[in-house]
Write a structure and sequence with these properties.
Layout (H helix, E strand, L loop, with lengths): L1 E2 L13 H4 L4 H4 L13 H10 L4 E7 L16 H4 L6 H12 L2 E7 L26 H17 L7 E5 L25 H11 L4 E5 L11 E4 L20 E6 L16 H13 L2 E7 L9 H17 L7 E2 L8 E6 L2 E6 L7 E4 L7 E6 L7 E4 L5 E4 L10 E7 L2
Parallel strand pairs: 1-2, 1-8, 2-3, 3-4, 4-5, 6-7, 7-8
Antiparallel strand pairs: 9-10, 10-11, 11-16, 12-15, 13-16, 14-15
Helix pairs in contact: 3-5, 3-9, 6-7, 8-9
C-alpha cells in the first residue's frame, strides 16, 4: 500500500497543489492550521492493507511541499507542532505495522518547495516567493538531519526509504509535464544519505524514483505508473537493472486526495496490473490518498477488499514468485516459483491455443487448471515453444490460470 497524505489534502486538489496553483509560502503556510485528522485510525489502515493482501506500506514522511508528517526536531513545520492535531502519525503507523506484522517504508522527497536553501530552484515550486539565493549544501545537511530522525528515531526497524524528487534538479528531455527544457545539474551527494541510512538501518532497502538507472547504494529499482521497461508514461527509463523491481500506480488518477477525481480503476484492472507486475518480475505498490479527516475513501476500500478476495484464492500464483520464462504477452504473463510455472490468461478473447514464446527448453510433467484442477492439454508449435489449449468455456473472466509442473 502506497499512502500519499499531507496537509495538501485539506485543499482536495492533489499533492502538487502548491506548484500547480502557483501558491506562495504565505498562502500555503495557512493550511497546516486547518489540518486536524481526528478520524485517523492506523489500526484500520493496516488492517485494510492486510485485507487487500498487501505485505508492506510506504507512506509519505515529507512530500515536495516540505511539510513533515512526524514530530521533527529539525523543523517546527511538522504535524506535531504546526497543526491542531499535534500528533506524530508516522510513529502511530509504525507501531501498528509492527503489531499487525507489516513492513514499513518512508517516502521522502529530495526536493523542497519551502526550504530557503533549496537553491537553485530546480524545475518546480518556483512561485513560492522565496529569495533567489541559498546554500544547497546547507539544504542537504537539513535533509539528511531529517532522514536521520526517521532512520534513527523511535520508528523501529524500517523496511526502507523510497526517495523522490532527484529529477527536479537534473537536465531532462523526456517530455514530462513537469520537466521544462532548462534545468540545473547539481550533486545530490546521494552516497552520504544512503550511507547514513545503511548505518542506522542495516537491513533497510533504499530506492529512488529518479527514472534513470540505479545508483550505487540503491537496493531496488522502481517504475512510476509503468511496468518495468515499458515507459508508457514517458519519463521512466527503459533500462531494467538486476535489482529487485517495483512498479507504483494509483487507484484513481491522483496520488494525494483529490475530491474531484472520480476516475477509479475497476477491481479487474487493478488485479490485472498486480498480475502483470508479477509477470514482469516486480512488486506492485498501489496508492491511496486519505482525506484530510484521516479516512480512506470507500471507493479505495471497496476495491482493495475485492483485490484481497482475489489474492486469498489466487495469491499462490503471485506471492513469492518471479517473472516466468515467457516474456509478457498482450494476452497475459507467466510467473514462476521453483519448478512450477503459472500461466495467467488475462484476455478472455485470446485464441484457444496460446503459444508461450521462449519455452522450447521446458519439460512439462503435468498441466492443470488452477481453479478446477482439470487437466489442460499442452503441446508444441513448429518452433518447439509450448502451446496451451484453453477452450473459452473454461476461462475465468478476470484471470484464467494454468499450472505447469516442470520436470526439467
Amino acid at each position: 500500500m502506497f499512502i500519499h497524505w499531507g496537509v495538501y489534502s485539506v485543499l482536495g486538489k492533489g499533492e502538487w497543489v502548491m506548484h500547480n496553483d502557483e501558491m506562495t509560502l504565505e498562502e500555503y503556510e495557512k493550511i497546516p492550521s486547518q489540518f486536524n485528522p481526528t478520524e485517523y485510525d492506523p489500526v484500520s489502515w493496516v488492517r485494510l492493507a492486510k485485507e487487500a493482501g498487501m505485505r508492506y506500506i510506504t507512506i509519505t514522511s515529507k512530500h515536495h511541499d516540505g511539510f513533515a508528517m512526524w514530530d521533527s526536531d529539525v523543523s517546527d513545520y511538522n504535524i506535531a507542532q504546526a497543526t491542531p492535531y499535534g500528533q506524530d502519525v508516522l510513529r502511530m503507523l509504525a507501531e501498528e505495522c509492527k503489531r499487525q506484522g507489516l513492513e514499513l517504508f518512508f517516502y521522502h522527497s529530495h526536493l523542497d518547495w519551502r526550504h530557503p536553501n533549496y537553491f537553485p530552484r530546480g524545475q518546480t515550486g518556483q512561485h513560492s516567493g522565496r529569495p533567489e539565493s541559498g546554500d544547497f549544501d546547507a539544504y542537504l545537511d537539513f535533509m539528511n538531519a531529517q532522514v536521520e530522525e526517521l532512520a534513527g528515531g523511535d520508528y523501529g526497524d524500517l523496511a526502507g526509504f523510497w526517495f523522490d524528487g532527484w529529477w527536479d534538479q537534473q537536465i531532462r528531455d523526456l517530455g514530462s509535464p513537469y520537466a521544462p527544457a532548462k534545468a540545473t545539474q547539481i550533486d545530490w551527494n546521494l552516497g552520504e544519505t544512503y550511507d547514513l541510512i545503511h548505518e542506522l538501518q542495516p537491513h533497510a532497502l533504499i530506492g529512488n524514483n529518479h527514472h534513470v538507472s540505479p545508483f550505487p547504494g540503491e537496493d531496488l529499482q522502481m517504475f512510476e505508473r509503468d511496468l518495468p521497461g515499458e515507459n508508457s508514461a514517458g519519463f521512466n527509463t527503459t533500462t531494467i537493472s538486476d535489482l529487485p523491481l517495483e512498479t507504483a500506480d494509483t487507484i484513481n488518477q491522483n496520488w494525494g486526495y483529490h475530491e474531484g477525481d472520480q476516475d477509479f480503476k475497476s477491481p479487474k484492472e487493478l488485479i490485472h496490473y498486480l498480475v502483470r507486475a508479477a509477470g514482469n518480475d516486480a512488486n506492485l505498490l498501489l496508492n491511496v490518498g486519505p482525506t484530510p479527516q484521516g479516512t480512506i475513501q470507500p471507493q479505495f476500500r471497496d476495491r482493495l477488499r475485492q483485490m484481497g478476495e482475489w489474492t486469498s484464492q489466487f495469491g499462490e500464483t503471485v506471492y513469492g514468485t518471479r517473472g516466468g520464462p515467457m516474456p509478457p504477452q498482450r494476452w497475459g504473463v507467466t510467473t514462476q516459483k521453483g519448478w512450477t510455472v503459472y500461466v495467467h490468461l488475462l484476455d478472455p478473447d485470446a485464441p484457444e491455443t496460446l503459444v508461450l514464446p521462449r519455452t522450447d527448453n521446458l519439460v512439462v510433467e503435468a498441466a492443470h487448471h488452477f481453479e478446477s484442477g482439470a487437466s489442460v492439454d499442452v503441446g508444441r508449435d513448429g518452433q518447439g515453444a509450448l502451446e496451451v489449449r484453453l477452450p473459452k468455456s473454461a476461462r475465468n473472466s478476470t484471470d484464467t490460470i494454468v499450472v505447469l509442473e516442470l520436470d526439467g
